[in-house]
Amino acid sequence: MNKLVIATANKGKYKEFEYLIKTYGKNFFADEIIFAPEISNLIVEETGKTYAENAMLKAHAWAEKSGLPCLADDSGLEVEALDGAPGLYSARIIQGTENKISWLLGELKEKSNRRAKFVASLALCVPDEYILICDGHCSGVIVDSPRGSNGFGYDPLFIPDGYEKTFAELSQEIKNSISHRTNAFKKIAAYLTKK
Q1: How many whole angstroms separate alpha carbon 19 and alpha carbon 26?
Q2: CATH code (residue 83)
Q3: Cys-Cys crosslink for 168: which of 19, 69, 148, 158, Cβ 3.0 to 4.6 Å?
Q4: Total domain count, the chain
Q5: Could you report the per-residue pLDDT of 90-145, keeping only the tens digit for each?
Q6: How many C-beta neighbours within 10 Å does residue 15 have?
Q7: Which 3 state secondary structure label does DSSP give 119?
């Protein structure tokens, strides 16, 4: 692949993928990666019932639109005490990062179980060849108040297992070595090295 479209409008996700490709996929991934909004304002409705279905919808739509290989993801935060919510609707449960954080803290106010995990499905679509889907997760706990200014979304509330800092407090290098997206990406990288 000479070029690869990263099918997201989220600049934070794009930066993560840029790092992952340079770190784990430099020998076989694209020489040039493209932030999807730079080529189109395509909006793909996430109508799937799973992360994998949504990732596939986005990857396929962008590959069809651009004629280039596309990498897309769908991800969410699953909180045990909320029966896996917000889950598939993590990005859409309420608008605005601060509102999402307030909503989650409000839902957990009377809960003692703070266990949660970030989940990601990545879909790589190469036009007229294949779609490859891989999943990853990262387990941890939700803190009582936001901490840190790195990352995006629910990152200021999530401490991954084995660490004392939230995703938003950790360096990008550390977060990008352990995240749900990284774990899914490593599976894609491992598969492609065998092809």
Answers
A1: 10
A2: 3.90.950.10
A3: 148
A4: 1
A5: 989 999 889 999 999 999 999 999 999 999 999 999 998 889 999 999 999 999 99
A6: 15
A7: strand
